[in-house]
Amino acid sequence: MISKIRPFREDDNSSEKLVGKPIVDPKGDIIATCAEVFEDEKKKKHMRLSVKTEIGTDFIVEETIPVSAISKIGEVILLKKTFNIKPIPVEEIVTFEIQEVKTPKEKTIPPSEEREKDTQQKSQAEQGTDKTIEKQPPEATKATPLPKQKEPEVIQTEPKEESKKTTQRTTVKILLEELLTLEDPTQKQTLKEQLVKKIKKSKTNQKTILKGIVRYLASPELPTRLEMAELLTKIVRQDYEIVIPYFSELLTAAYNEPDKKIESVLCNSLIRVAIEANSKLVTPKMEKFFNDLIINHKLCKTISFSRIHNLNLKIFVNNYDMQTLIVSKYIKQIFVKKSGNDYADALKDFNAVIIANSLIRFFSPEKWQPFINLPAVKKTFDEHFIATINTILTSFVEGNIKTLTDIIKPKLGTDLSKKIVQNMIKTRIDDFLTNISIIPLDVMTSFFQDDNNMTVQILYDLINKNEINAQIIFIEEKTYIATSEHG
To answer: Which CATH fold would you assign to the domain 5-92?
Structure first.
């Protein structure tokens, strides 16, 4: 079945069309349900979100999503980009409210009513009633005692989440400080192992320990920096992904480290993360970091470009994606300078495939030839090197998979060659399906020069991984590629 979904229009932003529908991110995951549509102070509409909790109930969260972030709508709401909605801990879901037990106030009886009451009591006594009511002066009159009420049961809940986090932060901070005061090597190793175990238990511990490491790596005391570098090594061996959010800060520490031994320990940890993380390291935060470092010169102002460049080559020697990102910043600077400079010279440390792929990924085709014709580029590279870049770019545009593979595979290996070819096919298919909603598979593949039938294999793989907005359909025993919206 093909879900009927279409591009979002301005008249779709009403509560009637949005409330109650599942919200799906670009990865295909349902992240919430639209609970309400409201306007902010600037008259911009937002969706209030309802999420499923750990105990299966619905819960309205603080986060909202602007209606402008909607890409398409149908039975579900498809977003243009990913939004991180924090999970709701049980402690925040279950609350116990104990109602105050109010004791009734004493009722003041007027004198006339009291006299009437006395008369009735005397009459009852004279008629032989068993109950004798003793009259008391008005000032001594007491309210009739209420039956003893059962006190509400107080249910002990877990401490508030923030209280837990505070306790965890305090504990690991104390352990970090203690590590720096110990002299016995055995005790130090034991404490480091303890910190590594704690970092696995919660994100609060991860954040506190890694922030502490970053802070102490800026210490003027060499022994302090060495202890932190060695602790980082143990953490990376345990779980490299913990370090990814703090990679730019740790990279800055490596740039600034004057001691060769500590620099070596730090770089070894960062190299391991770069290899293991691969493309996961190319985050918006890392892209901004290199933009501020290379383009805007906001960071590491006292560190030479040569040192930064050489450390980057060392750390990212086996991370093709990070090399491509860094090269894109160098290319941008060469465009700005338009003359021979350090950035053009630095490009000589990268092969033609990396440079060509950086142009493909980060620059429009209109920029490719102007870059190659820049004086700084012609001065830095020989004709054969420039010809290789041109061949890769031309093969990409023409869909010549065979030529592209023949050039890339010997330089970067099978896996990276396949990755670039996948990117080429993905780009071409996206272009095709932007203009038409359905095309026969054999017509689609005819646009690619492919001797080994790689196009079909890669196409199926991209569709299965939801990396392209397409589907395979069959009409009268013929195979077609269509947009996901095509019915």
So the answer is: SH3 type barrels. (2.30.30)
